[in-house]
Amino acid sequence: MEKYTLPELPYDYNELEPHIDEATLRVHHLGHHAAYTKKLNAALKDIVEILRNNEQIPDKWRTDVINNGGGFVNHALYWATMSPNPKSEPRTPTGKIGDLIDKSHGNFSMFKQWFDEQVNSMFGSGYTWLCQDVTSGFLTILNMGNQESPVAYRLNPVLVIDLWEHAFYLKHQNKRPGYVHSWWHLVDWERVNELLEWWQNQNIHDEL
């Protein structure tokens, strides 16, 4: 069976500075994401399909699959929707994601406020997600704890912020709001559009 490998980042470890520091990114990617990848390879084929149907996983494996499979996919999505922005230039959604945000939340400012409120309400470790409902096509923002994945609820995740402390603690210590403020400068809306299109076009047996 072909094993999952740690995806390479689409940028160098120092290129998300000053928003995410090189030391944090190295530990996050080479430590945490690599560990999920290693553990994931124990018993997986198509992780997206498995996470979609996790209720069918035998009890003795379900927790490990959700934790490590979710950790693998969630991190891959987190890296994929960021890009370097050393001058901290403002970024706003364009194209289809921009249209969907305006339709669901009125405008980007209102959307961002709603997203930040969800982030601030997140207790403990987990992620805040922007997802498209596969049935209605509407966008939804939700929090999920630990390594749970939105794909288990028939949602297509298109943007995510990692709220585990290892994502920001070296630079921001326990000040999560500072990390969130910096993260907005890294969101690459063109890549979000690409991910939105990928979900719409993919075969459910394809891998990330």
From TrEMBL:
- Does the keyword field hold Metal-binding? yes
Asked whether the keyword Manganese is assigned, the reply is yes
Q: Which Pfam families match?
A: Sod_Fe_C, Sod_Fe_N
Positions bound to Mn(2+): H28, H75, D162, H166
Give a GO molecular function annotation for the protein.
metal ion binding
Sequence ranges assigned to domain Manganese/iron superoxide dismutase N-terminal in this UniProt record: 3-83
Q: Which residues form the Manganese/iron superoxide dismutase C-terminal domain?
A: 93-194
Broad enzyme group: oxidoreductase
Tell me what reaction this enzyme catalyses: 2 superoxide + 2 H(+) = H2O2 + O2
Question: Organism's domain of life?
Answer: Eukaryota
Q: Which SUPFAM superfamilies match?
A: Fe,Mn superoxide dismutase (SOD), C-terminal domain, Fe,Mn superoxide dismutase (SOD), N-terminal domain
Q: Identify the EC number(s).
A: 1.15.1.1
Q: Which Gene3D superfamilies match?
A: Fe,Mn superoxide dismutase (SOD) domain, Iron/manganese superoxide dismutase, C-terminal domain
Which keywords does UniProt give here? Manganese, Metal-binding, Oxidoreductase
One cellular component term from this protein's GO annotations in UniProt = cytoplasm
Instruction: Show which residues constitute the signal peptide.
Output: none
What this protein is reported to do is described as:
Destroys radicals which are normally produced within the cells and which are toxic to biological systems.
What is this protein called in UniProt? Superoxide dismutase
